[in-house]
Amino acid sequence: xxxxxxxxxxxxxxxxxxxxxxxxxxxxxxxxxxxxxxxxxxxxxxxxxxxxxxxxxxxxxxxxxxxxxxxxxxxxxxxxxxxxxxxxxxxxxxxxxxxxxxxxxxxxxxxxxxxxxxxxxxxxxxxxxxxxxxxxxxxxxxxxxxxxxxxxxxxxxxxxxxxxxxxxxxxxxxxxx
Length: 177
Prior knowledge:
mainly alpha, two-stranded antiparallel ribbon, 7 helices, about 5% strand
């Protein structure tokens, strides 16, 4: 079944990598820190999504090609996570930040488990007047192939469950010969 899902998986990963560029350049990690009062540094964001992520994506693609079951699980995780859940970027601008929501400017604050974070931007549309959150413009890039990949998986699963018409002995012999 790699021929069914591998192209959609690779396109999802490619779209995700472009999406991560926008997130990095526009301050996704600091914005999330301010929005949810978590201590998520740019370095940890880069380590997880930009450095470790591509290694997992590459190994997953190889595993799909070799039909390794764990690769199928990781593929589903990626198709659903970055593939579908990126729509949350369109919700984030309407959520009230947990840290100093009425201050428009970027701030420094103690967040999460007591970590001092710098340059935490505010993207709350109610205060900024702008409907945007880091990564929002490119969020659709991994979503399209991710949703397509899930759809292809569901179709393939349904087709594999359909009862097949029994082959007559004469037909089987002709196929072998």
